Amino acid sequence: MKRYSLLIQLVIYVFVMILVLLGIVGGLYYQTSSAAIRQTTEQTTRNTIQQSGQFITSYLQKLKETTSSLAESDKVKAYAQKPDADNAEQLRQLMGMILKTDSDLVSAVLVAKNGNLISTDPNLTVKTSNDMMQESWYQDAIHKGTMPVLTPARKTVDKVEAAEKWVVSITQEVVDKDGKNLGVVRLDIGYKTLEAYLDRLQLGKDGFTFIVNDKHDFVYHPKKTVYSSATEMRAMAPYIAAKNGYVKSKQAYVSQYQIPHSDWTLIGVSSMEQLHAVQTQILWSFIGTGLFALGVCLIGIWFVLRLWIRPLRDLQATILKVGSGHSDLRANETGSPELVDLARQFNIMLDRIDQLMIAVKEEEQNVRRYELQALSSQINPHFLYNTLDTIVWMAEFNDSKRVVEVTKSLAKYFRLALNQGHEQISLKDEIDHVRQYLFIQKQRYGEKLQYEIKELKQYNDYKIPKLILQPLVENAIYHGIKEMNRQGRIRVSVSENDTQLIVSIYDNGRGFVASETTNATLVRLGGVGLKNVNQRLQLQFGKSYHMEIKSEENTYTEIRLYFPKTNKTN
């Protein structure tokens, strides 16, 4: 029997099920008119709001021109600069004439900078002018300069008619010929025209329109309680935030139109009763067919998983075991062609990892050998130069005995350092190497340097990597004793406890505050050379080796190397 790939089989199963599902859903969908109703409602709402917005734009433009002409009138500026009786009367006549030109204009007000006020509203007096200058509409007009400014809706009280009215205002700053502020004019506008126009719009049974500014303050709403009710305001928030789209579980469609050259936004809300009924029908139809399709899919998926998940589980178990440390395991190459290929490549990867681990271990050992060779070849030339200078100095003073001693010591120093090319050296020879080094340095520093070496003969043949102790002793001299004004002392000693061999390098030098890690301290004390010593010892002895550093500032420094008594060299 021909085996098809897992991808092909899954594609066939999913394709068949989706084809059946789409056939059922598609047949029901074409029997409804939901999409057509929705599209028609959206388009009608957008067109209606756009046309209404254009009407409001023209309406506002006319009122702005009226406000600007009033603000730029010579009579307004004359009264603002010289508030006498003649100027006041002429201004009242001008305001009255402007109010007669438009039935929507409720009142006109001029609040001069000097505190004088003149208005067609008999309810306003000079006493209220200072309060009006502190209100937001007055301050907004000043900040906008000589541009008309629209205000949110506000409630006014007509004392003559004993009634409340809601109005919006257009304000504009009055300036003199030099551009200096003289005051602010305000035209109060009623809602007759806006109400008559906006209330005629057909936006469904429960549809409505309203206007807000950029601060989401209400400019117009058919329901006047919105202006003063926090609950009503919160109810309008979803419509404001929707921009253009559906709200309240798609029971209403919102379309917005930004009025040009203003901070007003016209918002239309269309009710979706008809569409909601159609959507309910589609919903129940979809639920029925969806449940049926879901059952079919679940049965199909169950059979597919039963047939094909077992090889995946086997592969997963193998991967987890390999991850936990069983690197010798290999995956069974069974299942679909894709799974067989996956298992085969996984096994190949494991084989390569094993090879890489072996190569990495060998490379790490080679790196340490190269580091040792580099360290051996990097014996400080200054030490050699200084030693030769010391020998020349002794020869000049005819101190032939010391010349011979120092020369022999130098020769033995280099012979032990090279160690005939061997990486491992006995503890006795390594300490002897340090002894020759200290002897030579003693010739240079004289009485400033004293040293002491204590050994344990039973560990003379103990094997360690060469050039381990000399870098530590050299560091003790150059970083601990060299710059002191007192006599320096270095002690190299070998001791033991129950399980460990201990090699100690002590100096009474400058010391330091030992608050860092061992590696960080070694780098700071003696650079990468001392860090290399620690790493080489860790590589050879593993966890059975460790280093301790103790120090007190201006007192001492002691480095202790702890080795296992049983030496297992590589």
How would you explain this protein's 3D organization?
This protein is of the alpha+beta class. The protein folds into two domains: 32-271, Beta-Lactamase, CATH 3.30.450; 378-564, Histidine kinase-like ATPase, C-terminal domain (Heat Shock Protein 90, 2-Layer Sandwich). The chain has helices spanning 6-30, 34-71, 74-81, 85-101, 129-133, 136-143, 192-198, 230-241, 273-323, 337-377, 381-396, 400-418, 427-445, 469-481, 518-541; strands at 105-112, 117-119, 149-150, 154-158, 163-175, 181-189, 208-212, 218-220, 245-247, 252-258, 265-271, 424-426, 449-454, 463-465, 488-496, 500-507, 546-552, 556-564. The strands form four sheets. Strands 1, 2, 3, 4, 5 and 6 form a six-stranded antiparallel sheet that branches. A five-stranded antiparallel sheet has the order 8-7-11-10-9. A five-stranded mixed sheet has the order 13-15-16-18-17. The longest helix is centred in the middle third of the chain and has 51 residues, at 273-323. The two termini are 58 Å apart. The mean pLDDT is 79.
